[in-house]
Design brief:
Blueprint lengths: L3 E8 L6 H17 L4 E3 L29 H13 L2 E11 L2 E9 L5 E6 L5 E2 L2 E2 H4 L9 E3 L4 E4 L8 H9 L4 E5 L3 E2 L9 H19 L2 E5 L2 E5 L6 E5 L3 E3 L5 E4 L6 E8 L1 H10 L21
Parallel strand pairs: 1-2, 2-3, 9-10, 10-12
Antiparallel strand pairs: 1-17, 3-4, 4-5, 6-7, 8-9, 11-14, 12-15, 13-14, 15-16
Helix pairs in contact: 4-5
Length: 298
């Protein structure tokens, strides 16, 4: 029997008008739901421009508590219930004064708050000064049992580490969603060739889908965002996509324009393919992986 589910991904630009970003995101969620989407995911930190290009202590004022009764979560819960959709949304979480996380919440189709994932891997590179803003997550890798699918969530930099997808798949994720904010600085002389960076970003995630025999949905933002102090900019390359069980990209959004991406996946195929191929779990040699618990094997 088929277990077809429609995934919706919101790929959009963000302005300095926070409320406009929120309104646009919710309008896109509604449009995707009307088009048949059952599980809808926003991009990373959808309410604002990617503020991590520079270090600015005023940015912490934008962070919010994240729990079932917090303001934004209640809005997401109401929308999910009204539209009968699962929503995954990336938020800037204030845990306490001086302690903040890059998080994503999962809301079930009846409006139930299922919990949150906190980004585990925090980058610190030119234009991506995330260690200034975010504490690494402490909730581990999780699977959320929703009305339509068992899903896992990773966030951006997590996508470069194969262990994250493997652990999420081992916990039962049928689909792994990865809200993202990634691109390149078009004005930097030190910038790698952007086409190579984009290819690596996509290929590594396709590999996660194939290696774990699950679907993977990566959601990126799009457009040019200038650093507030004029020190640089990021051209976000969009290209949100869904990869199937073999790692093949089955739907992909524009690399230049806003787009609501809709993709149908058949969850019944996961068990069938795993049974036929006997991977990814049966032949794991866990007795030989001790060095994975070390930072580096000398």
């Amino acid at each position: 029997m088929s277990r077809e589910v429609q995934i919706g991904l919101v790929q959009m630009t963000c302005s300095t008008d926070r409320q406009a970003n929120i309104d646009k995101t919710f309008a896109n969620i509604e449009n995707l739901a009307q088009s048949g989407a059952q599980i809808i995911c926003t991009q990373e930190l959808f309410q604002t421009p990617y503020f991590c290009q520079v270090m600015d202590d005023q940015v912490f004022l934008m962070a919010e508590e994240v729990h079932a009764e917090s303001e934004m979560v209640k809005s997401l819960r109401s929308t999910a219930k009204d539209l009968q959709v699962v929503i995954i949304a990336g938020l800037f979480e204030k845990r306490s004064v001086g302690l903040y996380h890059n998080s994503a919440v999962v809301i079930d189709a009846d409006g139930t708050y299922l919990g949150k994932y906190r980004k585990m891997h925090i980058p610190q590179d030119p234009g991506y000064t995330e260690k200034y803003y975010f504490t690494p997550g402490d909730l581990g890798y999780q699977v959320f049992r929703t009305r339509y699918a068992d899903l896992g969530v990773l966030i951006c930099w997590d996508q470069w580490f194969p262990e994250t997808a493997r652990l999420t798949a081992m916990k039962g994720a049928e689909i792994i969603f990865i809200p993202t904010a990634i691109g390149f600085d078009p004005g930097s002389e030190n910038e790698e060739r952007p086409e190579e960076s984009h290819a690596a970003w996509q290929i590594v995630q396709q590999g996660h889908a194939a290696a774990n025999v699950c679907y993977l949905a990566a959601v990126n933002r799009v457009g040019l965002e200038q650093a507030p102090d004029g020190s640089g900019s990021i051209q976000f390359w969009g290209g949100s996509f869904v990869a199937d069980l073999s790692g093949q990209v089955i739907e992909k959004a524009s690399m230049e324009a806003e787009e609501n991406l809709l993709c149908t996946v058949d969850l019944e195929r996961i068990e069938r393919v795993r049974n036929l191929s006997s991977y990814p779990f049966r032949d794991r040699r866990v007795d030989s992986y001790d060095d994975l618990t070390r930072l580096y094997s000398d």
